[in-house]
């Protein structure tokens, strides 16, 4: 009787999962190629905007004047594209999350163009949200065209996983994010059955990106080798400070969004947003521009190169820039700018109290900020640990996450309903 009942139970999931492997690998690889293509195009345009043009005009590449001019022009260009393109380059980004239902295919070209302008122009947003939305739209459209009997959820999960795997250069990030999403939804099979396809897609995306671009998130900070009892207090205080700074932006989010929407015109809202971002960039300096990944590498390469006050200014300026960019209409994600805020805050904490290990300070600050901005616990822990490249910080991070999570849970999120009310 045992073999009769056991074989079908084992065979059904296998027959269901095996056909997913090839589509998952294909979707993951293509998702990485789309991300890489957009990133390379944005880098080419960035070289023109921040190198070729100011050199030709004999203007300092990152002078205050040029920063204000380029970011204002980027806002104007993004606004004109959003107004002119079919579908207006997608829905209001303030109401969009990282993994949303598929967009119409006609929206994709405009969203890609606005994303390139955002990344190249120095706007404080990352590529994760728009590229994930583009890949989900493409995977859904092509998948349903060639396999009309498949579910929309399959293509959404494969494209999201492939993109996240490519963004972080590892499938672990996608598995952690999707495990939180899938665990809250009813569905057939065990959790690992439901993660089977997405894990294959994220592995393909990560491997494709690693082979072609070799991304790295390790800040090469001094290792955290000698934990002390005092580090428990330090980790809790720094993570809580990061969460509180993130919550300031979260609570200001609907008010900033309402102010830009009152202008009733995307071109005007984005041009004004670009101008404000330019003024902030002139105040905070060039390191507070762009998505923030390359800039955190520069900060971490010389932790003693700036004072505690300068680190604090950069953290506050980047937080304000993220708030404005995400509410005025620019298309982009909030994870990478939030990482910059956390790194700057962690380096500020280390500069204030040098006895706090720099790796611990940075990891805990990033953890706190990401918890407030993303509400993704696993992603926050994973990113904080990967940045310092040291598993010794994990016990401290887990302890620090507890009070930080108590601060953010149940609070409004950095995402709005379509009527402008905060999402909880």
Walk me through the topology.
Blueprint: H1 2-17, H2 21-56, H3 64-84, H4 108-120, H5 128-146, H6 152-168, H7 171-183, H8 191-213, H9 229-261, H10 266-284, H11 293-301, H12 308-328, H13 335-352, H14 358-374, H15 377-388, H16 394-408
Helix pairs in contact: 2-4, 2-5, 2-6, 2-8, 3-4, 3-10, 4-5, 5-6, 6-7, 6-8, 7-8, 7-15, 9-12, 9-14, 9-16, 10-12, 11-13, 12-13, 13-14, 14-15, 14-16, 15-16
Commentary on this structure:
The chain is mainly α. The chain has helices at 2-17, 21-56, 64-84, 108-120, 128-146, 152-168, 171-183, 191-213, 229-261, 266-284, 293-301, 308-328, 335-352, 358-374, 377-388, 394-408. Helix 3 (64-84) runs antiparallel to helix 4, helix 9 packs parallel to helix 12 and helix 14 (358-374) runs antiparallel to helix 15. The radius of gyration is 22 Å and the shape is globular. The protein starts with a helix and ends in a 16-residue tail after the last helix.
Give a quick rundown of the structure.
The protein contains 16 helices and no strands. The longest helix is centred in the N-terminal third of the chain and has 36 residues, at 21-56.
